[in-house]
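With this grant's support, we have settled on a layout for protein records. A representative record follows, to show the layout.
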Amino acid sequence: MMIQRRSRTLAVACVLATALAAAGCAKSETSDNAGGDSGQAAQEAKTPDSSSGSGCELEMYGAPELDLKDAVVGFSQSEKEANPFRIAETRSIKDEAKKVGVKKLLTTNAQSQLSKQISDIQDMLSQGAQFLIVAPLNSDGLEPALKAAAAKKVPVLTIDRKVNSTACKDYVAFLGSDFVEQGKRAADAMIKTTGGKGKVAILLGASGNNVTTDRTKGFVDQIEAKAPGLEIVAQQTGEFARDKGQQVMEQLIQSKPDITAVYAENDEMGLGAVTALKAAGKKPGKDVKIVSVDGTRNAVQALVNGEYNAVIESNPRFGPLAFATAQKFYAGEAIPENVIIADRAYDESNAEESLGGAY
Protein backbone atom coordinates (compact mmCIF):
# COMPACT_ATOMS: atom_id res chain seq x y z
CA MET A 1 0.00 0.00 0.00
CA MET A 2 2.84 2.40 0.92
CA ILE A 3 4.69 1.56 -2.31
CA GLN A 4 1.55 2.15 -4.30
CA ARG A 5 0.97 5.51 -2.62
CA ARG A 6 4.58 6.59 -3.14
CA SER A 7 4.34 5.70 -6.82
CA ARG A 8 1.27 7.87 -7.18
CA THR A 9 3.00 10.68 -5.29
CA LEU A 10 5.97 10.62 -7.64
CA ALA A 11 3.70 10.35 -10.63
CA VAL A 12 1.76 13.47 -9.74
CA ALA A 13 4.99 15.49 -9.48
CA CYS A 14 5.85 14.39 -13.01
CA VAL A 15 2.38 15.40 -14.22
CA LEU A 16 2.74 18.79 -12.54
CA ALA A 17 6.08 19.35 -14.24
CA THR A 18 4.50 18.48 -17.61
CA ALA A 19 1.60 20.83 -16.96
CA LEU A 20 4.01 23.63 -16.16
CA ALA A 21 6.05 23.05 -19.28
CA ALA A 22 2.87 23.43 -21.30
CA ALA A 23 1.90 26.53 -19.35
CA GLY A 24 5.25 28.05 -20.27
CA CYS A 25 4.04 28.56 -23.83
CA ALA A 26 1.73 31.36 -22.74
CA LYS A 27 2.75 34.94 -22.07
CA SER A 28 1.50 37.16 -19.24
CA GLU A 29 1.24 40.92 -19.12
CA THR A 30 4.37 42.91 -18.46
CA SER A 31 5.08 46.19 -16.69
CA ASP A 32 8.07 48.12 -15.47
CA ASN A 33 7.85 46.52 -12.04
CA ALA A 34 6.64 42.98 -12.62
CA GLY A 35 5.66 40.52 -15.29
CA GLY A 36 8.15 39.64 -17.95
CA ASP A 37 7.98 36.84 -20.46
CA SER A 38 6.32 33.94 -18.68
CA GLY A 39 7.39 31.68 -21.52
CA GLN A 40 10.97 32.16 -20.37
CA ALA A 41 10.26 32.16 -16.63
CA ALA A 42 7.35 29.80 -15.96
CA GLN A 43 7.74 27.70 -12.81
CA GLU A 44 8.83 24.12 -13.19
CA ALA A 45 8.67 21.44 -10.53
CA LYS A 46 11.97 19.74 -9.83
CA THR A 47 12.38 16.00 -10.31
CA PRO A 48 9.91 13.82 -8.39
CA ASP A 49 12.61 12.94 -5.87
CA SER A 50 12.62 16.56 -4.66
CA SER A 51 8.95 16.35 -3.67
CA SER A 52 8.45 14.99 -0.20
CA GLY A 53 5.67 13.59 1.98
CA SER A 54 3.41 10.58 1.58
CA GLY A 55 0.91 12.52 -0.50
CA CYS A 56 -2.55 13.93 0.17
CA GLU A 57 -5.66 12.70 -1.61
CA LEU A 58 -9.13 14.20 -1.73
CA GLU A 59 -10.66 11.30 0.19
CA MET A 60 -7.97 11.49 2.89
CA TYR A 61 -8.52 15.23 3.27
CA GLY A 62 -12.26 14.78 3.62
CA ALA A 63 -13.21 17.47 1.13
CA PRO A 64 -16.12 17.16 -1.33
CA GLU A 65 -15.53 16.76 -5.07
CA LEU A 66 -15.36 20.02 -6.98
CA ASP A 67 -15.17 21.28 -10.55
CA LEU A 68 -13.07 24.45 -10.56
CA LYS A 69 -15.15 25.82 -13.43
CA ASP A 70 -18.15 25.81 -11.09
CA ALA A 71 -16.24 26.90 -7.99
CA VAL A 72 -15.50 29.93 -5.86
CA VAL A 73 -11.74 30.08 -5.23
CA GLY A 74 -10.10 32.43 -2.74
CA PHE A 75 -6.57 33.81 -2.87
CA SER A 76 -5.06 35.38 0.25
CA GLN A 77 -2.04 37.58 -0.45
CA SER A 78 0.13 38.37 2.55
CA GLU A 79 1.88 41.63 1.74
CA LYS A 80 1.07 44.89 -0.01
CA GLU A 81 1.80 44.82 -3.70
CA ALA A 82 4.60 47.35 -3.64
CA ASN A 83 7.04 44.48 -4.00
CA PRO A 84 7.53 43.09 -7.54
CA PHE A 85 7.39 39.53 -6.20
CA ARG A 86 3.88 40.10 -4.81
CA ILE A 87 2.71 41.92 -7.92
CA ALA A 88 3.84 39.07 -10.16
CA GLU A 89 2.47 36.42 -7.79
CA THR A 90 -1.03 37.92 -7.62
CA ARG A 91 -1.10 38.55 -11.36
CA SER A 92 -0.14 34.94 -12.02
CA ILE A 93 -2.95 33.61 -9.82
CA LYS A 94 -5.51 35.90 -11.48
CA ASP A 95 -4.32 35.11 -15.01
CA GLU A 96 -4.39 31.36 -14.45
CA ALA A 97 -7.80 31.43 -12.76
CA LYS A 98 -9.13 33.15 -15.87
CA LYS A 99 -7.38 30.67 -18.14
CA VAL A 100 -8.72 27.67 -16.20
CA GLY A 101 -12.23 29.17 -16.24
CA VAL A 102 -12.76 29.43 -12.48
CA LYS A 103 -16.32 30.54 -11.80
CA LYS A 104 -15.30 33.24 -9.30
CA LEU A 105 -11.96 34.28 -7.83
CA LEU A 106 -11.92 36.17 -4.54
CA THR A 107 -8.70 38.03 -3.75
CA THR A 108 -7.57 39.74 -0.54
CA ASN A 109 -4.41 41.43 0.68
CA ALA A 110 -3.37 41.28 4.34
CA GLN A 111 -1.09 44.33 4.05
CA SER A 112 1.54 42.52 6.17
CA GLN A 113 -0.86 42.15 9.12
CA LEU A 114 -1.39 38.64 10.47
CA SER A 115 -4.72 39.49 12.09
CA LYS A 116 -5.98 40.84 8.76
CA GLN A 117 -4.90 37.73 6.89
CA ILE A 118 -6.85 35.59 9.36
CA SER A 119 -9.96 37.75 8.95
CA ASP A 120 -9.47 37.89 5.16
CA ILE A 121 -9.54 34.09 4.95
CA GLN A 122 -12.54 33.87 7.26
CA ASP A 123 -14.35 36.48 5.14
CA MET A 124 -13.67 34.54 1.94
CA LEU A 125 -15.08 31.43 3.59
CA SER A 126 -18.19 33.42 4.52
CA GLN A 127 -18.47 34.46 0.87
CA GLY A 128 -18.58 30.82 -0.17
CA ALA A 129 -14.95 30.05 -1.05
CA GLN A 130 -14.62 26.33 -1.81
CA PHE A 131 -10.86 26.18 -2.34
CA LEU A 132 -8.19 28.48 -0.92
CA ILE A 133 -4.72 29.44 -2.14
CA VAL A 134 -2.82 31.15 0.66
CA ALA A 135 0.51 32.98 0.63
CA PRO A 136 1.14 32.97 4.41
CA LEU A 137 2.55 36.06 6.06
CA ASN A 138 4.17 34.02 8.84
CA SER A 139 4.84 30.34 9.38
CA ASP A 140 2.92 30.50 12.67
CA GLY A 141 -0.31 32.22 13.61
CA LEU A 142 -2.73 31.25 10.85
CA GLU A 143 -4.26 28.42 12.91
CA PRO A 144 -7.65 30.17 13.42
CA ALA A 145 -8.03 30.62 9.66
CA LEU A 146 -6.92 27.06 8.89
CA LYS A 147 -9.37 25.71 11.48
CA ALA A 148 -12.18 27.77 9.97
CA ALA A 149 -11.40 26.28 6.55
CA ALA A 150 -11.21 22.75 7.96
CA ALA A 151 -14.58 23.19 9.66
CA LYS A 152 -16.12 23.91 6.26
CA LYS A 153 -14.07 21.16 4.56
CA VAL A 154 -12.38 23.73 2.31
CA PRO A 155 -8.92 22.62 1.12
CA VAL A 156 -6.04 25.07 1.58
CA LEU A 157 -2.99 25.18 -0.70
CA THR A 158 -0.04 27.20 0.66
CA ILE A 159 2.43 28.90 -1.66
CA ASP A 160 5.85 30.57 -1.26
CA ARG A 161 5.99 30.27 2.56
CA LYS A 162 5.37 27.22 4.73
CA VAL A 163 3.05 27.02 7.71
CA ASN A 164 3.98 25.05 10.81
CA SER A 165 0.87 22.91 10.68
CA THR A 166 -0.05 19.37 9.64
CA ALA A 167 -0.17 18.56 5.92
CA CYS A 168 -3.32 16.81 4.66
CA LYS A 169 -5.13 17.99 7.77
CA ASP A 170 -4.64 21.73 8.11
CA TYR A 171 -3.56 22.25 4.50
CA VAL A 172 -3.10 20.12 1.38
CA ALA A 173 0.48 20.94 0.37
CA PHE A 174 3.19 23.58 0.12
CA LEU A 175 4.32 24.83 -3.29
CA GLY A 176 7.54 26.78 -3.42
CA SER A 177 11.30 27.00 -3.46
CA ASP A 178 13.94 25.25 -1.40
CA PHE A 179 14.98 28.30 0.62
CA VAL A 180 17.97 26.65 2.29
CA GLU A 181 19.26 25.77 -1.16
CA GLN A 182 18.71 29.38 -2.28
CA GLY A 183 20.91 30.52 0.60
CA LYS A 184 23.60 28.02 -0.35
CA ARG A 185 23.53 29.10 -3.98
CA ALA A 186 23.76 32.74 -2.91
CA ALA A 187 26.79 31.84 -0.80
CA ASP A 188 28.41 30.07 -3.75
CA ALA A 189 27.82 33.16 -5.90
CA MET A 190 29.28 35.36 -3.17
CA ILE A 191 32.36 33.16 -2.87
CA LYS A 192 32.85 33.32 -6.63
CA THR A 193 32.51 37.10 -6.88
CA THR A 194 34.68 37.88 -3.82
CA GLY A 195 37.27 35.19 -4.30
CA GLY A 196 36.27 33.83 -0.92
CA LYS A 197 37.67 36.76 1.06
CA GLY A 198 36.19 39.85 2.66
CA LYS A 199 33.64 41.08 5.18
CA VAL A 200 29.98 40.36 4.52
CA ALA A 201 26.82 41.95 5.88
CA ILE A 202 23.51 40.07 5.70
CA LEU A 203 20.29 42.01 5.17
CA LEU A 204 17.79 39.65 6.77
CA GLY A 205 14.19 39.31 5.65
CA ALA A 206 11.16 39.64 7.92
CA SER A 207 11.19 37.56 11.08
CA GLY A 208 8.67 34.83 11.83
CA ASN A 209 8.72 32.91 8.56
CA ASN A 210 10.72 30.02 7.16
CA VAL A 211 11.99 32.00 4.17
CA THR A 212 14.20 34.24 6.31
CA THR A 213 15.32 31.42 8.59
CA ASP A 214 16.18 29.06 5.74
CA ARG A 215 17.89 31.60 3.46
CA THR A 216 20.06 32.66 6.40
CA LYS A 217 20.94 29.11 7.40
CA GLY A 218 21.83 28.05 3.86
CA PHE A 219 24.08 31.06 3.35
CA VAL A 220 25.82 31.00 6.73
CA ASP A 221 26.44 27.24 6.69
CA GLN A 222 27.86 27.33 3.17
CA ILE A 223 30.16 30.26 3.91
CA GLU A 224 31.46 28.57 7.06
CA ALA A 225 32.04 25.31 5.18
CA LYS A 226 33.58 26.66 1.99
CA ALA A 227 35.00 30.15 2.58
CA PRO A 228 36.53 30.73 6.02
CA GLY A 229 38.11 33.86 4.55
CA LEU A 230 34.69 35.47 4.23
CA GLU A 231 33.73 36.93 7.58
CA ILE A 232 30.07 37.65 8.34
CA VAL A 233 30.31 40.88 10.34
CA ALA A 234 26.66 41.96 10.57
CA GLN A 235 23.14 40.53 10.33
CA GLN A 236 20.31 43.07 10.45
CA THR A 237 16.72 42.87 9.27
CA GLY A 238 15.52 44.96 6.39
CA GLU A 239 12.05 43.35 6.49
CA PHE A 240 12.15 42.49 2.77
CA ALA A 241 11.59 46.21 1.97
CA ARG A 242 13.70 48.51 -0.20
CA ASP A 243 13.49 51.53 2.09
CA LYS A 244 14.39 49.44 5.14
CA GLY A 245 17.26 47.83 3.27
CA GLN A 246 18.55 51.27 2.37
CA GLN A 247 18.28 52.46 5.98
CA VAL A 248 20.13 49.43 7.33
CA MET A 249 22.85 49.81 4.70
CA GLU A 250 23.27 53.49 5.58
CA GLN A 251 23.78 52.50 9.22
CA LEU A 252 26.22 49.74 8.30
CA ILE A 253 28.30 52.07 6.16
CA GLN A 254 28.83 54.16 9.29
CA SER A 255 29.28 51.35 11.81
CA LYS A 256 31.10 48.85 9.56
CA PRO A 257 32.90 50.95 6.92
CA ASP A 258 35.14 48.03 5.95
CA ILE A 259 32.26 45.88 4.62
CA THR A 260 33.17 44.50 1.18
CA ALA A 261 30.04 42.46 0.37
CA VAL A 262 26.30 42.34 1.04
CA TYR A 263 23.96 39.35 0.95
CA ALA A 264 20.38 40.60 0.74
CA GLU A 265 17.66 38.02 1.32
CA ASN A 266 15.53 39.65 -1.34
CA ASP A 267 16.18 41.97 -4.27
CA GLU A 268 14.30 44.91 -2.82
CA MET A 269 16.70 45.15 0.12
CA GLY A 270 19.63 44.66 -2.23
CA LEU A 271 18.46 47.54 -4.40
CA GLY A 272 18.06 49.67 -1.28
CA ALA A 273 21.67 48.86 -0.45
CA VAL A 274 22.71 50.00 -3.94
CA THR A 275 21.10 53.40 -3.31
CA ALA A 276 22.79 53.77 0.07
CA LEU A 277 26.21 52.82 -1.29
CA LYS A 278 25.95 55.29 -4.17
CA ALA A 279 24.97 58.07 -1.79
CA ALA A 280 28.05 57.27 0.29
CA GLY A 281 30.31 57.56 -2.74
CA LYS A 282 30.91 53.82 -3.05
CA LYS A 283 30.52 51.76 -6.22
CA PRO A 284 28.03 48.89 -5.70
CA GLY A 285 29.08 45.78 -7.56
CA LYS A 286 32.74 46.84 -7.38
CA ASP A 287 33.68 48.38 -4.03
CA VAL A 288 30.97 46.34 -2.35
CA LYS A 289 29.79 43.10 -3.98
CA ILE A 290 26.03 42.41 -3.84
CA VAL A 291 24.20 39.09 -4.09
CA SER A 292 20.47 38.74 -3.47
CA VAL A 293 17.49 36.43 -3.97
CA ASP A 294 14.35 36.94 -6.10
CA GLY A 295 15.01 37.69 -9.76
CA THR A 296 13.18 40.98 -10.21
CA ARG A 297 13.71 42.89 -13.40
CA ASN A 298 15.24 45.81 -11.52
CA ALA A 299 17.85 43.58 -9.88
CA VAL A 300 18.73 41.84 -13.16
CA GLN A 301 19.02 45.28 -14.78
CA ALA A 302 21.41 46.28 -11.99
CA LEU A 303 23.48 43.23 -12.97
CA VAL A 304 23.51 44.44 -16.56
CA ASN A 305 24.59 47.87 -15.32
CA GLY A 306 27.48 46.40 -13.31
CA GLU A 307 26.01 47.49 -9.96
CA TYR A 308 25.17 43.97 -8.81
CA ASN A 309 27.01 40.66 -8.87
CA ALA A 310 24.49 37.81 -8.72
CA VAL A 311 20.81 37.05 -8.19
CA ILE A 312 19.30 33.70 -7.22
CA GLU A 313 15.78 33.43 -8.57
CA SER A 314 12.70 32.79 -6.44
CA ASN A 315 9.96 32.42 -9.02
CA PRO A 316 6.65 34.06 -8.01
CA ARG A 317 4.51 32.83 -10.90
CA PHE A 318 2.53 30.27 -8.92
CA GLY A 319 -0.68 30.39 -10.96
CA PRO A 320 -0.07 27.45 -13.34
CA LEU A 321 1.38 25.22 -10.63
CA ALA A 322 -1.30 26.09 -8.07
CA PHE A 323 -4.23 25.37 -10.37
CA ALA A 324 -2.58 22.30 -11.91
CA THR A 325 -2.16 20.99 -8.35
CA ALA A 326 -5.79 21.77 -7.51
CA GLN A 327 -7.01 19.96 -10.63
CA LYS A 328 -4.95 16.86 -9.84
CA PHE A 329 -6.14 16.93 -6.23
CA TYR A 330 -9.79 17.00 -7.29
CA ALA A 331 -9.09 14.26 -9.82
CA GLY A 332 -8.20 12.01 -6.89
CA GLU A 333 -4.42 12.02 -7.27
CA ALA A 334 -2.02 12.24 -4.33
CA ILE A 335 -0.30 15.60 -3.90
CA PRO A 336 3.17 15.57 -2.28
CA GLU A 337 3.40 17.47 0.99
CA ASN A 338 6.13 19.69 -0.52
CA VAL A 339 6.28 20.43 -4.24
CA ILE A 340 9.61 22.16 -4.78
CA ILE A 341 10.19 24.35 -7.82
CA ALA A 342 13.41 24.85 -9.78
CA ASP A 343 14.89 28.37 -9.62
CA ARG A 344 17.37 29.93 -12.01
CA ALA A 345 20.40 32.09 -11.25
CA TYR A 346 21.57 35.33 -12.87
CA ASP A 347 25.07 36.77 -13.11
CA GLU A 348 27.02 38.97 -15.51
CA SER A 349 27.23 36.11 -18.03
CA ASN A 350 23.48 35.78 -18.63
CA ALA A 351 21.81 38.88 -17.18
CA GLU A 352 21.31 40.82 -20.40
CA GLU A 353 19.88 37.92 -22.38
CA SER A 354 17.66 36.89 -19.42
CA LEU A 355 16.24 40.34 -18.68
CA GLY A 356 13.02 39.64 -20.61
CA GLY A 357 12.19 36.69 -18.39
CA ALA A 358 12.67 38.54 -15.11
CA TYR A 359 9.69 40.01 -13.32
Summary: Residues 2-23 form the longest helix (22 residues). Residues 7 and 334 are 9 Å apart (CA to CA). The two ends are 43 Å apart (CA to CA). The first strand starts at residue 72 and ends at 77.
